[in-house]
Amino acid sequence: MKKYNFNAGPSILPEFTIENTANAIRNFNDSNLSLMEISHRSKDFQAVMDEAEALFKEILEIPAGYSVLFLGGGASLQFCMVPYNLLEKKAAYLNTGTWANKALKEAKIFGEAVEVASSKDANFSYIPKNYEIPTDADYFHITTNNTIFGTEIRKDIDSPVPLVADMSSDIFSRPIDVSKYGLIYGGAQKNLAPAGVAFVIVKDELLGKVSRQIPTMLDYRTHIANGSMFNTPPCVPIFAALQTLKWLKQLGGLQKMEQKNIEKADLLYNEIDRNRLFKGTAATEDRSIMNVCFVMNDEYKDLEADFLQYAVSQGMVGIKGHRSVGGFRASIYNAMPMESVQALVDCMKKFESNL
Ligand SMILES: *Cc1c(COP(=O)(O)O)cnc(C)c1O
To answer: In the list 54, 148, 203, 286, which could disulfide-bond 127, CB 3.0-4.6 Å?
Structure first.
């Protein structure tokens, strides 16, 4: 049966990425060797790394003065690497959910980390507004897309101090003005590649300013100086990321991608708003175009298990909501085709009319 993959992460990847990566795992560049069994220092792999970095910069239109890194350890290691490298006295964090909170917690190990605002009072169903960013902070940290709660900051905000963003689950979903950020990071397993690699975009001039000693592997400068090859990089995920970047470019880049993402999200949110059984959990103006969270209206609450079972029987995968929100979550990342979102919408309509 056809499966519609709404998994939150690791999640759907373009067919192009999976196909090309599978082929390279069998026979990389007609070498009769697997991508998994060659030296990362070989000419052929170096070309993969160089092209991945170049395409990353091209598609996001990253200005001069920034480095792009591919590192192990996931987004979670960045929760500690960011303050290790950037926090001298004080950092400011916007608390918009589970991941933002984890980032904040790590920063506290390194110095004063203040929470400038939080939406915990309403189970992170909105993005706080009208907060003040302390001008004496070394940086201000935001999580642009809150994967678990389905809220998103889709505008590049102005910050008086270097802006640091966890973009794990919305990188490449829309054009961004990188010049407004000091550092952007994320795990690749939502919109780019299989798990195992994290990306970091860092403004070079922000580095080397803290007085503490930084372990070699945790110092961004080590990886900049070695082109993300100080040690063995995650070769297969990096190769897969390159395929996704090629796919994105062929498709027409980020403007095109954003347009498609908005169309998909509108289709699903419109059905959630129309269908008497369902309601969205995120504040309308903060709704994510990547993770769509919804529950059943109070009077139909006891039908949630039935709907889930019905959706699964129709091929829907991964739509059970995260335990901290309940209900349902449909992750509709870049690689998700419109037809799959339509299939979920059809499911919701059918379930309603069968009642
Ligand atoms: C998935 C996710 C993470 C965690 O990523 P890991 O690579 O597993 O550490 C962090 N932040 C956000 C916003 C995420 O969606």
So the answer is: 286
